[in-house]
């Protein structure tokens, strides 16, 4: 293979694996900036993957090639609905955020595999979807010398969409009134409250945005990688997205970058065989890398409060 | 039983009832019979001596991981790493049992259990060490360590333990197994093994430890108020690491006991073992009380074992029992709801009655 071909394969594979992580990590950022820790991202992704797979199987004859894209939104919608449970538990019913997030992770696989068995005559997995998100070549951009073939030929369109959502998320969180209020609720809910900001409403919105984006993330997994739904469709990606968000220091752009880096780590075992230097390295190191790096990053930033100040704290309004 | 414990018991019972109710409603919605399924579940879990053996065997690692989770939470830490610690414990025990198979039986078993415990303990201690010296959130580090454990153990099994083309290690020699003909006979050939009694002993040891020992007291003190504990002259860093180490030793023991008693080998796995998370659920339901953990573990184990016979006698998917378990923990988590519903009145009345009775 030529250098260009190798780089093209690395970029494309990296982006395919990064896309679900980017969406979900951005979702995590919204939730945590509103002050609600969300370790339930894994569960939310499962719901997104399941609902999108079912949608594609049901409606592919109606919407044709557009189906997987609509399915992403369906996954997001159901993810948001599912995350409502987390918001209800943590914001309204003052549950511990970790316990509630764990409930999402316990409930999602149980519920989704249960429904899969109900819908598909007792089988634990859905049939393979017949419309999926394949690769995409950007017209025009692909003609640019060197960069064109590497970045814009036969690549993952949904990953570019994810990066765009990352930039939008940064703008929303740091440049709009809504973002400022959402962050104020996560930093100092009592102060926000005295300024007339409805803490509960903003926290609900933060959690549901994490449900929306996490659901889309899960749907991307089902629509572009596994191509069906089973208990194994989402296996740790939600936790990896959580790690990406922390690695990115809770910042949308940082989270996006970290997710791309983790995507690279995930794709290396697959493409490592083509790259002479990496061919000898055992794939286990690539599998472990994202998690080990996250721990190291946390240790390096020791003592620096990077998480929102009131992250994980329930706000109890005094009467 | 003090007031806090009795209100914990009421909430646990209400949560279980509410969780079973949710499961029943889900079954009704999808056209399955809750009554038929719940009675099949009960029979599958407790119907005969064989089922009871299976239920108790399945409860064993749940008791131990729950004990591990609760000791860390007594010190104020959320050890989500039970799954990873259990997995490395299982791995350590099997490796020891395979490698030293020429040792006499009792030494072989003790060595294998110790190897598993130490690996599990080390895995958890790492998170405690990072927490004590770098302030790194143990929630995040234990999650990350879970996946590192999963991928490393898978790699190690394929590389060193499994024959070419296989995904499982060889079986351990019979003398390393915790199963015995005696226990198998009295439970009609179930997989019931010595591990359950090891778990019971540890429940008592931990109960005593937390109530009576100096370091047990220090763990609770750090959990209640780390700064106050430091002012009182306790070495909080040491206590944090000690609590996390203990927690991991117990989870590692769970893995070792399950590996030596139940599986007899170790296989490559796609996902982290559920037992870690279910053990956490057990500890939450029991509110960290050692004796409560026995009952909560048997309850969840019964749901799982009984759940298997749900799908034997009907078309209802077995996953329904996991929906019930998740719902129970949801209700435990939102105890505030119950406290509001009961409006403290019922709880107060209950405590008052208790007081009078005790007089």
TrEMBL record, chain A:
Q: How does it sit in the membrane?
A: Multi-pass membrane protein
Q: List, alphabetically, the GO terms of the cellular component aspect.
A: plasma membrane
Q: Name one GO molecular function term.
A: transmembrane transporter activity
Q: Where in the cell is it found?
A: Cell membrane
Q: Identify the keywords attached in UniProt to this record, alphabetized.
A: Cell membrane, Membrane, Transmembrane, Transmembrane helix
Tell me the superkingdom of the source. Bacteria
- Protein's UniProt name: ABC transporter permease
Query: Organism, per UniProt?
Result: Latilactobacillus curvatus (Lactobacillus curvatus)
| Source species taxonomy | Bacteria, Bacillati, Bacillota, Bacilli, Lactobacillales
Automatic annotation (TrEMBL), chain B:
Gene Ontology cellular component annotations, sorted alphabetically? plasma membrane
Record carries keyword Protein transport: no
Keywords, A to Z, come to: Cell membrane, Membrane, Transmembrane, Transmembrane helix
Principal cellular location given in the protein's record: membrane
- GO terms for molecular function, please? transmembrane transporter activity
**What's the protein's topology in the membrane?**
Multi-pass membrane protein
- Tell me which Pfam families the record gives: BPD_transp_2 (PF02653)
Q: What domain of life is recorded for the organism?
A: Bacteria
Per UniProt, subcellular location reads as: Cell membrane
Please give the PANTHER family that the UniProt record associates with this protein. ABC TRANSPORTER, PERMEASE PROTEIN, GUANOSINE ABC TRANSPORTER PERMEASE PROTEIN NUPP
What protein does this entry describe? ABC transporter permease
| Native species | Latilactobacillus curvatus (Lactobacillus curvatus)
């Amino acid at each position: 293979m030529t250098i260009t071909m190798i780089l093209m394969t690395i970029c494309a594979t990296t982006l395919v694996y990064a896309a679900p992580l980017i969406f979900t990590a951005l979702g995590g950022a919204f939730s945590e900036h509103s002050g609600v820790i969300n370790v339930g991202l894994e569960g939310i992704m499962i719901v997104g993957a399941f609902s999108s797979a079912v949608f594609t199987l049901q409606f592919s004859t109606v919407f044709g090639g557009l189906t997987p894209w609509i399915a992403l939104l369906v996954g997001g919608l159901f993810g948001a609905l599912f995350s409502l449970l987390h918001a209800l538990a943590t914001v309204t019913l003052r549950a511990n955020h970790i316990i509630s997030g764990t409930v999402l992770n316990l409930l999602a696989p149980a519920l989704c595999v249960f429904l899969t068995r109900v819908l598909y005559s007792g089988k634990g997995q859905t049939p393979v979807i017949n419309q999926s998100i394949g690769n995409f070549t950007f017209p025009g951009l692909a003609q640019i010398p060197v960069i064109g073939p590497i970045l814009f030929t036969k690549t993952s369109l949904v990953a570019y969409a994810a990066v765009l959502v990352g930039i939008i998320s940064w703008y929303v969180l740091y440049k709009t009134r809504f973002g400022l209020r959402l962050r104020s609720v996560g930093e100092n809910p009592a102060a926000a409250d005295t300024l007339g900001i409805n803490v509960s409403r903003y926290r609900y919105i933060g959690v549901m945005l994490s449900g929306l984006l996490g659901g889309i993330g899960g749907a991307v997994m089902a629509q572009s990688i596994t191509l069906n739904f089973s208990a194994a469709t989402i296996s740790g990606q939600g936790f990896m997205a959580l790690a990406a968000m922390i690695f990115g220091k809770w910042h949308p752009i940082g989270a996006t970058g970290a997710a791309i880096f983790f995507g690279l780590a995930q794709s290396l075992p697959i493409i490592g065989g083509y790259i002479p230097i990496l061919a000898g390295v055992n794939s286990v190191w690539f599998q472990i890398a994202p998690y080990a790096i996250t721990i190291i990053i946390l240790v390096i930033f020791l003592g620096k409060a990077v998480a929102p100040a009131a992250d994980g704290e329930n706000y109890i309004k005094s009467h | 039983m003090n007031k806090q414990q009795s209100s914990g018991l009421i909430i646990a019972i209400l949560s279980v009832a509410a969780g079973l109710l949710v499961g029943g409603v889900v079954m009704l919605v999808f056209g399955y019979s809750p009554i038929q399924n719940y009675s099949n579940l009960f029979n599958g879990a407790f119907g005969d001596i064989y089922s009871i053996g299976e239920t108790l065997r399945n409860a064993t690692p749940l008791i131990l991981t729950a004990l591990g989770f609760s000791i860390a939470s007594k010190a104020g830490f959320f050890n989500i790493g039970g799954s990873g610690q259990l997995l490395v414990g299982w791995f350590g025990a099997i490796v020891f049992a395979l490698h030293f198979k020429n040792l006499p039986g009792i030494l072989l078993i003790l060595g294998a259990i110790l190897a598993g415990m130490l690996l599990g303990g080390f895995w958890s201690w790492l998170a405690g060490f990072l927490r004590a010296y770098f302030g790194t959130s143990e929630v995040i580090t234990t999650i990350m360590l879970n996946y590192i454990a999963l991928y490393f153990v898978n790699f190690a099994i394929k590389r060193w333990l499994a024959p070419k083309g296989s995904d499982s290690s060889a079986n351990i020699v019979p003398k390393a197994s915790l199963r015995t003909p005696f226990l198998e006979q009295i439970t009609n050939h179930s997989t019931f093994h010595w591990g359950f009694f090891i778990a019971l002993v540890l429940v008592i040891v931990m109960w005593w430890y937390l109530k009576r020992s100096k370091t047990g007291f220090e763990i609770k003190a750090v959990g209640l108020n780390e700064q106050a504990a430091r002012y009182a002259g306790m070495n909080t860093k040491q206590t944090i690491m000690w609590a996390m180490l203990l927690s991991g030793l117990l989870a590692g023991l769970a893995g070792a006991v399950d590996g030596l008693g139940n599986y007899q080998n170790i296989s490559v796995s796609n996902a982290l073992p559920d037992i870690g998370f279910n053990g956490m659920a057990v500890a939450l339901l029991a509110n960290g009380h050692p004796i409560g953990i026995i009952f909560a573990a048997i309850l969840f184990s019964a749901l799982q074992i009984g759940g298997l016979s749900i799908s034997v006698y009907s078309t209802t998917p077995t996953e329904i029992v996991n929906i019930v378990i998740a719902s129970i923990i949801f209700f435990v988590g939102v105890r505030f709801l119950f406290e509001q519903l009961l409006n403290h009145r019922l709880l107060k009345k209950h405590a008052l009655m208790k007081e009078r009775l005790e007089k």
